[in-house]
Each structure stands twice: as structure tokens, then as C-alpha cells.
Write a structure and sequence with these properties.
The protein is mainly β. It folds into two domains: 23-141, Immunoglobulins (Immunoglobulin-like, Sandwich); 147-236, Sandwich (Immunoglobulin-like). Helices cover 8% and strands 55% of the residues. A hairpin with a 3-residue loop joins strand 11 (149-151) and strand 12 (155-158). 17% of the residues are buried. Residues 4-20 have low confidence and may be disordered.
Length: 238
């Protein structure tokens, strides 16, 4: 009997703690910043207070790797803050049941190509054990080094790169119709078949080893359901 009473008492005392877990949810998916050097992107963070109480959260920590030339600002409405310097100033209050849509992240791409991720940890100012996390990833590219992409009816396919190549060559692609059969055929300069590659809809790129090919000019052709879509040049060098 005493053991049952002790167990009941422990469960009863734990109810406030259990009831407070995950009462504020991040509705927006993991944020992705993809852009060119020198540009700035803004993403909206959508939050929902599932509780019946007003809650105020502050930015407790910023974790992750942000390049030396990149920077981030956390904006609440029209007011923006630097999370590396203004942690204590970044606060937002959510009314019971409220969905907040005026929290933004501004990411400045900087002057160097890089990629990485970071997390923003928010804590309840009256109960720091109650938290939510905003996750983000980024990739900064140099527009001058970008590979052209061609949008066909069934697939998006990049030009082969690097071109010329002496070791490996790569195609990036994305299926718009996973049922179509797509392949890339490589032929010699005079049209002799060299090798065929079937594109896998579950993947995003095809990497081929050209180091075994003789230096010279080759042609690659995209086939969709055995129909010739486009043919372009690939140069192999030593």
C-alpha cells in the first residue's frame, strides 16, 4: 500500500513538468539558405503556442558553423538583432494558442563559397527547461562557377562539369517523373558507343570516371524512354 502511495505521489508531482513539454512548436521545416555570393535571403520561422498560457522565450544560444564572411540576423517584426551580440535582447511573447509568423532569419551570403548549418536555441524565461530549436542549413555559391541546368519535360539536367575533365565528370539531375527511363550515353568523336549510364531517380548526381578514356572530344546524349533529347560535347584531357 505504501509503495502504491509513493508511486502515485511521484506521478502527481511530475504532471506539471510533463504537461509543459513541447508546448511551443516550430511549424516551419528546416530552413535552407541557398544563394550567390553577396546576396541576402530572408526566411520565415512559424511558431505555435499549444498551451493555454502566455509564454515568453529568449534566444539562449546559437550553435553551429557560420563562415567568417557570412552573418545572420534574427528579426522580430521590423526589429533585427545580431544573435552573436544581442542574445538577451531577442525575446518574443506568444499568447495562448497563437501562431507567430513575424519571426524571420536574414542570412547574408558573404564573399566566400561555403556550406554549413546552425541551430538557434530558444528557452522559456520562466522555465529554461522548456525550449524549442530552429534548425537551418546554408550553401553559398559563386555565380561565375555555376553549371547551366536545362529543364526538360521529365527531368532537370545540368551540363557536365568540369569540362574539360581529366579525372571525373559529373552530371546533376532531378527527376520530375520518376517513371521515365533516363540514361546518358557517351560516344566517341566519330560516333562509336563508349559507355551507357542509367540515371537513378533516387539519386541527384551521376559521377563518371574519365581517367581511363583517351584524351580527346566525346559526345554525351540524354535519352528519355530511348528517345534522343539532347547531345553535347565532353572534352577529356590528361
Amino acid at each position: 500500500m505504501n509503495r502504491l502511495l509513493i508511486l502515485f505521489t511521484c506521478l502527481w508531482l511530475s504532471l506539471p513538468i510533463l504537461g509543459s513539454a513541447q508546448q511551443v512548436r516550430v511549424l516551419s521545416e528546416s530552413l535552407e539558405f541557398n544563394g550567390d555570393l553577396g546576396t541576402t535571403q530572408r526566411k520565415t520561422v512559424i511558431l505555435q503556442n499549444d498551451s493555454d498560457q502566455q509564454k515568453t522565450f529568449f534566444l539562449k544560444n546559437l550553435k553551429g558553423n557560420i563562415g567568417s564572411s557570412q552573418s545572420i540576423k534574427v528579426c522580430i517584426g521590423d526589429q533585427c538583432y545580431d544573435p552573436k551580440r544581442d542574445l538577451a535582447k531577442i525575446k518574443l511573447t506568444l499568447e495562448p494558442g497563437e501562431i507567430v509568423t513575424d519571426l524571420y532569419l536574414d542570412f547574408q551570403m558573404g564573399i566566400a563559397e561555403t556550406r554549413g548549418s546552425f541551430d538557434l536555441f530558444f528557452a522559456n524565461e520562466t522555465n529554461i527547461r522548456e525550449t524549442f530549436v530552429v534548425e537551418a542549413i546554408y550553401e553559398v555559391a559563386n555565380a561565375e562557377n555555376k553549371v547551366d541546368e536545362f529543364d526538360y519535360k521529365e527531368i532537370i539536367l545540368s551540363d557536365v562539369y568540369p569540362n574539360p575533365s581529366n579525372r571525373i565528370a559529373q552530371f546533376d539531375y532531378e527527376f520530375k517523373n520518376s517513371k521515365v527511363k533516363a540514361r546518358i550515353a557517351i560516344n566517341s568523336f566519330i560516333g562509336n558507343p563508349i559507355v551507357d549510364y542509367e540515371l537513378d531517380p533516387s539519386r541527384k548526381s551521376l559521377i563518371i570516371n574519365v581517367s581511363d578514356l583517351n584524351p580527346g572530344v566525346y559526345f554525351y546524349t540524354l535519352f528519355l524512354d530511348n528517345k534522343n533529347i539532347v547531345t553535347k560535347k565532353l572534352v577529356v584531357k590528361k
